[in-house]
Amino acid sequence: MNTVLEDLRGIILRTLPTISKDTQQALMDNLLNSGLESTQDLKYVTQEDITDLLPAIQLRKLLEAFKKETEVVTLDLEILPSPIPAVSTPLVLPCSSPSSVPSVSNQGSSSSEDCGPSFQIKKTWPETFQIPWTTMPVDVRSAMADGKRPSPAARRQMVRVLADEMRKYELNPKRSQCVTVCQNIIRQYPQSFADLRDNGQVLGNGYTSLLIQLKNRIENLNRTTSFRQHRSSGDGLKRGPTDTYGCTRFQPDLPPEETDETVEQKRQRLDEIYHREGVNGVERVEVKQLMETTFCIQRRQINALPAPAITDLRGQWPYLFTQKGLYAHFELLTDINILRALELSMEECGRIIAEFFSNKPSNADVRAVLSLRSDLELFFFVIQLLMAHFSETQEGLILFANASSTAADVERTLALPATPRLILLGEKPGICIQQWMISFEGQIICAGIQPSFLSGLAAVFAIFYTFNVEYQAEAACTLEFIQRRFIGINPEKGTKGGRDVSKRTGKVPQKKKTVNTRVASLLKKLMDFE
Predict the structure, then answer these.
(1) Comparison of pLDDT for 198 and 452, the residue scoring more
(2) 456: nearest Cα among 467, 447, 469
(3) Contact, 183 vs 162, CB < 8 A?
(4) What are phi and psi of 497, to 5 degrees?
(5) Across-strand partners of 423?
(6) 176-208 burial string, b = 16+ CB within 10 Å, else e?
(7) N or C: which end of the chain has fewer CB within 10 A?
(8) Residue 20: is its pLDDT beyond 60?
(9) Chain-wide mean pLDDT for the chain?
(10) CA distances to 127, 151, 296 from 3, in Å
């Protein structure tokens, strides 16, 4: 009966999310008192059964939901007779036994009787997956019952239980399979698990943060066992390394309605807008649409060998070198909203990472960063801790400049390396950031519009994927940790970090490590700490 109650509550909340708790309870009591024993009985509920409890429109919505909940999807297939061959040969149909097979001469009239007209569509396991609510922590079940949000600790425990249950069906569920499960959870208990704004509205698709947590948990479990899986494409050929690194559209084809000529015309249209409106044109809806349509040719030019100079690409695609352009390109490339992923991950585990290092400082550099904790923004503080733990210098990823510096000033006063750097402008960088810039190939290529460290970190990280750049050795561990823990790109094979010189032999190894061992070790320790 508890399962029936949970299912019934989920259906009501999905259909009428704003319903009061008293009305919800009255509905369930009324239905149970009427003899409801399972969700399949919902098809027998009529308007008269609950007419006094809901307004007319809400009543119709709920009855429609009850109807859909008990529907079985079927296909009505008419089996047409085949032309009668010259030689009469018995034909065995899948639904007939050999003894009951009619001769070909009367097959046309009897085949529809032998074979049932309806065939149920077999659903995939994520669609039929039952959330193990009964084994969830008490705090989670209590929050669900009250329509409240569970504590972060209880939610993490829920994700652990969920991941363990899903791995009984498949050791390494695909992202799409995880999405299906997360969607079902959000539909049942939006108040408890959906991503919500301060005003209670659902943020985006509602399941992004839960999906990131779930995928990270599954990847961590797989990493700590001997299990390794390299997915193959449908035709049996192994995917390339770009797919392994989460690029779902590394080199897409032209849109069906476009040709090389029409796409080039759209690029020229972007050029016209830029020369007329400058960088502010990136806010136009037309620019967003044109950048999406021309994404295929952007990738073609970026992926060309030898790789084109950044200066040349900026001349061709000026709007790509904006904060909004980098975010959008990264999302088209990986299906990940990078800024949102970073925000959610930092909110979820930023303080946990800080607490972990506070309890177990791994070296003197970490202790030095901890001494500055009260002065630093949390997100900046976490990245500083990670770099200190991996013995990577801050200059390997982040540079600082005066708050009033222009791009020309920065290029003139700082020795900008060829690899990407995030440049923070402010009187007290890390405490009060007034602006940020990104340098690449020794020049400033982008200036941010949001004066926050996290928005700059998202943009500089997008550079590595957008332009096929390996992580520089000076910050490779920190960047791979960001990739795996915060962004959720968790390949089992390969690394974007460059090959380091071996401390033992003094030579560059011929083969890259599958996963950075120091990153994997920290991920495991954090998982145990949580």
Answers:
(1) 452
(2) 447
(3) no
(4) -75, 140
(5) 399, 437
(6) ebbbbbbbbbbbbbbbbbbbeeeeeeeeeebbb
(7) N
(8) yes
(9) 80
(10) 18, 23, 49
Angle at 340 between CA 416 and CA 326, to 5 degrees: 40
Assign 202 to helix, strand or coil.
strand
pTM of the model: 0.57
Question: Token pair of 89, please?
Answer: 């040969």
Phi, psi angle pair for 196, to nearest 5°? -120, 145
Q: Which residue in 345, 338, 309, 354 sits closest to 460, CA to CA?
A: 338
Highest mean pLDDT out of 33-42, 43-52, 120-129, 471-480? 471-480
Nearest-angstrom CA–CA distance, 213 and 223: 15
Report helix, strand and coil shares of the chain as percent, to nearest 5.
Answer: 55, 5, 40
Amino acid at 482: I
Listed in order, strand segments (DSSP E) in 394-521 are 398-401, 421-425, 435-440, 443-447
Q: Is the peptide bond before 126 cis (omega within 30 degrees of 0)?
A: no
Strand intervals (E) in 23-103: 74-76
Model confidence over 372-401: pLDDT tens digits?
876 678 899 999 999 999 999 999 999 999
Helix (H, G, I), strand (E, B) or coil at 302: helix
DSSP 8-state code for residue 206: S
Q: What is the pLDDT of residues 399-430, one digit of tens each?
A: 999 988 999 999 999 999 999 999 999 876 55
